[in-house]
Amino acid sequence: MRVLFLSAFLPAFAAAQSPSAAIRVNQAGYLPGASKAAIVAAAQPAREFAVRRTADAKTVFRGRLGEPMEDADSGERVQVADFSALRTPGRYYVEIPGAGRSWDFEIGPRVYDRVLYLATRSYYGQRCGTAVDLGPEFPGYRYEACHRTGAWHESSGRTGPAPSQKGWHDAGDYGRYVVNSGITTGTLLWAYELYQPQLEKLQLNIPESGDKTPDILDEIRWNLEWMLTMQDTDGGVWHKQTGEKFPGFVLPHEDAMPSYIIGTGSGPYKSTCATADFAAVMAIAARVYPPFDGDFARRAREAAASAWEWAVRNPAVLFSNPKGVSTGAYGDRDCSDEMLWAASELWRTTRNRKYEQYFLEHWQKFRSAIAHDRPPAWPQVSPLALWGWTLSGGPGSEEIRRLIVAAADELASRTEKSGHRMSLLGKDYIWGSNSVAANYGMQLLVAHRLRPDARYLEAALGNLHYLLGRNPLSISYVTRVGANPVRRPHHRPSGADRNEEPWPGLLAGGPNARRQDPAMKKLPEGTPPAKMFLDEQESYATNEVAINWNAPLVFLLAGVMHGK
């Protein structure tokens, strides 16, 4: 599409009174040198648009909209308003005759600094086992030390008191789960490894700030320390630590239910998926922490090796909730992908031949996992195994690299052609669809690391734009980010405290076409999948938050900032 400067012959557009959801922008903003576009779904196709400066409503750019195109997932006919040529830092909005104006946004080199800070600091707000206080920046966002007394559930094979130390509350509830901690901490540690310049100096204003360790690694360590308490002396790892049921909407320290370490219900009581995930994550930690704490790095390395040996001896011990337990199961019927990830990360850390041999003997089973429509998720971590192996130049990685690049080429092409210039397919509007978008972004950035391509960066940015407001609902899915953010997430601290706004930096789950909670009955039959979302606390299937959803958002932000 050709952008025209028409200031000489277009009439001035009248300023709109309030923003229109029909004009979608990234409400955080755009980098000066990057592409910039709004997506427009006006009742009648429009021809022209203007960009006005917020401070004085002065028109700084005019252009023509692209041709209308059908966007099946939103059920709309949309047009693109491209203003990439506008590079001057400032605060602006897009205006279209007959359609109104967009929400405000910023253009500048640091537009994502605040988002990265809030998204990463959100983990401090999820800490278990200690008092949390977001401080003067967010007065009143606090809770007391919680879940400090643990117990062995009868399903664990033990009885009596159990450790209950540290970790992150997994989602809108107060459980701690090894499987979901696996992909979460793994993704965050990868982000640090790949984008250290963007993350090592990130100041999170946490209790550890000011020590010799980067704040993000201090925060990640809080969860790693809990994971280490979940490992048995034989190397196996228990699956989760939760109550027997979800608590009501109370603050963490008001949850009086015992915090049980829960096992499989019969010997060996630990689970293979949790143990292999643990091995992979601890192997990454063993690579990352030596400059800051050599003893902790060695401890992580030994724990990873011990977990690996247990998983090799017990390759298919699956987990289901035992009788009387109704918290999240994170049940997985196949742990071979977790085993591949563990082998990959252990080899990357140790270069030990036995891990290399395992990987080379098993990776071909997962060729199909490297595809344009299969980003990683907690039940399928084989993409992480294959990406990591290739990033480290493992034996045979050239073949895997070709698969990764081919998938990224197709993914980038699809993203370019989508109505909202993002990567989601119709099948991707599931519970946590926003994390699918973020993980597509991660996939594109990994491919860009292997073969730099501006198309990959552009497509990754498209997914970030979608999450921050350039979507069919014109809503920023990250709390406290943008002019029209999610305000009522399914998140117990946000629902139980006395603050009007939610806790900051949390990525909501996003549209879910499957109607998996009672609140979704409010959505009319025939609602397009991209609009199957409710900004309501009761809609846990669309508006819950989760640590594994925020992790690829942090990765995506760091990656696009690195590539700017």
Low-pLDDT stretches are 1-16
Over all CA atoms, what is the radius of gyration?
24 Å
Content of β-strand:
5-15%
Write the CATH architecture name of the largest domain.
Alpha/alpha barrel
- The helix tally amounts to 15
* Fraction of residues in H or I helices: 25-40%
Main beta-sheet annotation: 5 strands, antiparallel
Q: Based on CA inertia axes, which overall geometry fits?
A: globular
Q: Looking at CATH, which topology of the largest domain would you report?
A: Glycosyltransferase
CATH class of the largest domain: Mainly Alpha
Structural class: alpha+beta
Average pLDDT value? Answer: 96
- The tally of structural domains comes to 2
In total, the number of strands is 16
How far apart the termini lie comes to: 23 Å
Oligomer state of the chains in this structure: single chain
Written description of the protein model:
This protein is an alpha+beta fold and 564 residues long. It has 2 domains: 23-107, Immunoglobulin-like, CATH 2.60.40.10; 113-475 and 543-562, Alpha/alpha barrel (Glycosyltransferase), CATH 1.50.10. It is 35% helix and 10% strand. The protein has 15 helices and 16 strands. It has helices at residues 113-121, 178-194, 196-199, 215-229, 272-288, 294-313, 336-350, 353-362, 382-391, 397-417, 433-450, 454-467, 492-496, 540-543, 547-562, and strands at 23-24, 37-40, 48-53, 59-64, 69-71, 76-82, 90-96, 100-101, 105-107, 132-133, 142-143, 150-152, 161-162, 176-177, 240-242, 259-262. The strands form 4 sheets. Strands 3, 4, 7, 8 and 9 form a 5-stranded antiparallel β-sheet that branches. A 5-stranded mixed β-sheet has the order 13-12-16-15-14. Strand 3 (48-53) and strand 4 form a beta hairpin. Helix 2 packs antiparallel against helix 4 (215-229), helix 5 (272-288) packs parallel to helix 7 and helix 11 (433-450) runs parallel beside helix 15 (547-562). The chain is globular and about 70 Å long. The model is unreliable at 1-16 (pLDDT under 50).
